[in-house]
Structure formats: structure tokens, C-alpha cells
Write a structure and sequence with these properties.
246 residues, alpha/beta, Arc Repressor Mutant, subunit A, globular, binds FE2/S2 (inorganic) cluster
Length: 246
């Protein structure tokens, strides 16, 4: 039972003082330079991940001061911003007094990659890459068929060997290259002209039965590669049960 001398009475916080850490003007300006000033109706909350990416790419990590400022700019709680930022392995959470690594190498350590030698890569890479490259384990990056897989900055590498990773890391000499290393992709027009989305359009025009497509998808047993292995057919059916965005 607390004695009279052990009880501390904290003075009440004046009403005009907000709870928690407050953003500095400098950090707010740095955030605004990337996401723009808040529009009259406020920032869209559903763009939180995009804004986190903008900060992470520009600063090569998410510094505490920027997370606090972003929460204030978006009128979100700090807990909400931190939960999203800490959920995804793409983001680098950094203390304000830390230095951002020149490059981060993420080695998948989920099952397929473990079986294919991810543990060995994780053990050997720090000594091979040097102190300015951070090597961290990561959950499945969706390249299980090319195990072991790794991400060098934002660039995915399948059938990764220590030699490949060292070679790719040395080319990523400037931190900005982490953000600019976009993979080769087929642009929408080229994909469309090559017959892409023809089935989707036929369904939209009512020429094909959506139920039949859905049933074929379910029967195929296709699953997502995001780690949960969620059945694709069931996901499509759930989405179809909702109204389209207005
Ligand atoms: S298990 Fe490594 S990429 Fe999926």
C-alpha cells in the first residue's frame, strides 16, 4: 500500500498543451516539401502509405521527427502512423540521432528461402558488404519460386547469391538509387494492345459470365504470394460483393 511519502502528485497539464511529442516547425516543413500543404478538406487518410514512401525514399528511412510531423499534418494519431510504418518491411524506422544506411539489403527468411540457404546469406553478407550497408531479415517478398530471394534497396533479386548481392550493392553507390531502381515493366498500352484485359472487358460488356470466371479461378486453387496464401477466387468474390467506388 503506498505510503504518504511514496505518492507523487503530478501537476495538471494546462489545457492548451497537447499530449505527446509535438512536431517541430522544421520537421513539418520537411514533410510538407514532399507531400504538399494540407488542402482545405485536409490530407486524404488513405494516402498515408504513399506519404510514408515519399519520406522513406527521400530521407532513406523514416525518422521519428517526420512521423510525428506527418501525424500532425494528416491529423492522425501518432499510434496509427507508427503502426502502418512499422508493419511493412519496406520502411526503415530511424531514431532522430541515427544515420540512415547507404543501402539496405533485405534477405527473405520465410520458408522457401530458408530451405534454399537464406540463413547462410544472412550470416555472410554483413562482412562482405561493409558497415555502410545494412543487412536485415525480411518476411516473404513474393519470389518464393526463385528462392533464396533478396531486395537490394528496392530491387528484387531471385536465386540470390552472396556474389550477386555484393555486385548489385556496389552499383547502388548513391542512396538515391534505392528509390530510382524501378524494374522493367510492360506499360499499360503495350499490354492492352497485346490482348491484355480482353477477358475483363468481355465480362464488363456482359459477353462472358462473371460467375463462370470466378468459379474457374476458385477451382484452379490460385493463392496470393503475399505470405498469407489467401485464395484468389475467394478474394475476388469478396470484392465483387461490394459496390464500386463512386
Ligand atoms: S519465401 Fe522467400 S520470397 Fe517467398
Amino acid at each position: 500500500m503506498p505510503t504518504e511519502t511514496s505518492i507523487k502528485i503530478h501537476p495538471r497539464r494546462p489545457r492548451h498543451q497537447l499530449k505527446g511529442r509535438q512536431p517541430s516547425d522544421a520537421a513539418r516543413a520537411e514533410v510538407r516539401a514532399l507531400i504538399g500543404p494540407p488542402p482545405a478538406e485536409g490530407h486524404r487518410r488513405d494516402l498515408l502509405i504513399e506519404h510514408l514512401h515519399a519520406l522513406n525514399d527521400h530521407w532513406h528511412g523514416l525518422f521519428e521527427r517526420h512521423l510525428v510531423a506527418l501525424a500532425a499534418e494528416m491529423r492522425l494519431s501518432m499510434a496509427e502512423v507508427y503502426e502502418v510504418a512499422s508493419f511493412y518491411h519496406h520502411f526503415e524506422l530511424l531514431r532522430d540521432d541515427a544515420a540512415a544506411p547507404r543501402l539496405t539489403v533485405r534477405v527473405c527468411q520465410s520458408l522457401s528461402c530458408q530451405l534454399a540457404g537464406a540463413g547462410d546469406l544472412l550470416a555472410r553478407l554483413p562482412a562482405l558488404l561493409g558497415t555502410d550497408v545494412q543487412v536485415v531479415p525480411a518476411p516473404c517478398i513474393g519470389r518464393c519460386e526463385q528462392a533464396p530471394a533478396a531486395l537490394v534497396g528496392q530491387r528484387a533479386l531471385g536465386y540470390a547469391t552472396a556474389q550477386d548481392i555484393v555486385s548489385m550493392s556496389s552499383k547502388a553507390s548513391a542512396p538515391a538509387s534505392q528509390a530510382q531502381a524501378a524494374p522493367e515493366v510492360i506499360a499499360f498500352e503495350a499490354y492492352h494492345q497485346g490482348g491484355g484485359y480482353a477477358l475483363a472487358q468481355a465480362v464488363a460488356r456482359g459477353e462472358r459470365d462473371a460467375e463462370g470466371v470466378m468459379a474457374a479461378l476458385e477451382h484452379a486453387g490460385l493463392r496470393g504470394l503475399g505470405g498469407a496464401g489467401f485464395p484468389a477466387g475467394r478474394k475476388w468474390r469478396i470484392v465483387r460483393g461490394f459496390d464500386a467506388p463512386g
